[in-house]
Specification:
Layout: H1 2-16, H2 28-63, H3 73-99, E1 102-105, E2 110-117, E3 120-127, E4 135-138, E5 147-148
Antiparallel strand pairs: 1-2, 2-3, 3-4, 4-5
Amino acid sequence: MLRRRTARRQRVRARSAGPRDRMRQFTVEQANRMLPLVRRIVEDVVSQYRRWQDRVRELEILNVGRSATNPVPRAEELEREIQLLAAEIDGFERELTALGVRLSDHAAGLVDFPTTVGGRDAFLCWRVGEPSVQYWHDREAGYAGRRPLPPQPGAAV
């Protein structure tokens, strides 16, 4: 299943991404059009990040009794798995970056789409579970500074 998702992403990325997309500015409409692909990638990030955290916690517990004279084979297996999961998460983050989207929180599945509001740099903000891009915030404000988008359909930010 993961291979199919990756192949689908690669096809879409080949059509939509390029070096200039890294600094692109999104309208609400553009961000929402890209959301199905972004949602799939971010859902994978959240899932794999949760697995990564679980493995790190397990390794920390095993390391309490681990020493040169008392090796723990499961710990070595966990270290390899942690590295593989981290590499996979990094790959997902690179996919988002190539699309021009910034991953803000791995656990919450929070992403930002660069935009301009009132002539100032800002972000359109979306998180896993939300049906569409409905919020924005100043670049410095972060998640705590999220504000709802204007309620009119097609309204410019």
